[in-house]
Amino acid sequence: MRHLRLAILALPVLVAACGNSRQVQNDEYYDDSRRARVAGRLSGNPDGLLILGTDRSSNREGGGAGAPGDGSALGVNAYLWRASLDTLSFMPLASADPFGGVIITDWYSPPAAQGERFRATAYILGRQLRSDGVRVSIFRQEMRNGQWVDAPVSAGTSTELEDKVLARARELRSQSAAL
Question: What InterPro entries does the record point to (predicted)?
């Protein structure tokens, strides 16, 4: 009985919420200035789109949106991105999203360790070159009875790879500053 009363009380609110709907025209959201920015981006204009209030063109120095002067528009720190690719290059690459900052490797079996394989996922977390700007997750499997079974990974493995990525990123930044 109590649930019925609540349903009856909620019904007018739901009906009122539906009554004020209207059809949205495309022109309300895509005016001429936005169309021009999209057209410019498709034609190779380096300014690109303004996403979530972030102007990428104002943060090109210091490895923010891309390496200085390279004209790229990465969504993450260019030095961390390149360093992550370099550090994980011994594993086959499954996918890489430079705008979202995610690198996923395919399974890799070290020659010295038959019966186990590893997979890594690196997340570039921002546009600044900071020690907390990269996270690496390692997955490990072992062959048991002809099946690959998930196995624990040493706690320090991810941290070691993150440290190597950061060291490589610092190296890349110092090399570009010397040019």
Answer: DUF3576 (IPR021959)
